[in-house]
Amino acid sequence: MKPAAWHIAFIAVMVLYFTGMALQNDTLQFFFKPLLVSTLLGMFISETAGVASPFKKWIAGALVCSVAGDTLLMFANNNERYFILGLVAFLIAHVFYILCFHFIKVKASIPGKWYAAIIVGVYYFFMMSFLLPHLGALKIPVLVYGIVISFMLLLAMLLYDLPDQVAARTILTGAIFFVVSDSVLAINKFYHPAAWGGWAIMSTYVLAQWLLTRGMIRYIRQEERL
């Protein structure tokens, strides 16, 4: 499929999925949820075809693991094991994002920033302190997941110094929305479910994945021109 076709497919899937949410139609949601990131993967592969970049495999891996995580979490209400497996899938997805952002940081010779580490550390400390009394048997997995996604956010913040500011801001905004989505999911699951929780989780998640994909497509294509 051509890039334009993948864009249309993504928009169509997104509209159908959120229609399923609005109608509380489990069949529509079940069918289209795994296709949300699948169409982004198709878009990424299509728009970076022919570009030799070492970063392509990390983003492809992150998107594939995200599709696996989306699929596994659909069964989480019936069996807690699926929630743990979904958590592991997304943890691996974040590891792929971390590796990608780290190698970009090294290639661009971007230094670390103490204030960025403090901002992320404060977020992690307060979020985990709030959730800790409610985590039960999932305390260790959630604490580890929190460390991983916080590190992903930190690296995305460091990439703000990339020469291509559009790519840098797109990637950072995507990382922020990912953290927001996962934070709302954790509060919704472990503390208190809200009626609007599902909408907040999925809208920020879809936006996060789209922004990360678009940012990396732009970065990889700009890299080819250098």
Automatic annotation (TrEMBL):
Segments passing through the bilayer: 5-24, 30-46, 58-76, 82-104, 116-136, 142-160, 193-212
Which membrane topology describes this protein?
Answer: Multi-pass membrane protein
User: Keywords on this record?
Assistant: Membrane, Transmembrane, Transmembrane helix
Predominant localisation class: membrane
- What InterPro entries does the database record attribute to this sequence? TMEM86B-like
Q: Where in the cell is it found?
A: Membrane
Keyword Membrane set for record: yes
The reply on keyword Endoplasmic reticulum is: no
The similarity annotation says: Belongs to the TMEM86 family.
PANTHER family per record: GH04784P
Protein name per its UniProtKB record: Lysoplasmalogenase
| Organism, scientific name | Niabella pedocola
Q: Which classification does the entry list for the species?
A: Bacteria, Pseudomonadati, Bacteroidota, Chitinophagia, Chitinophagales
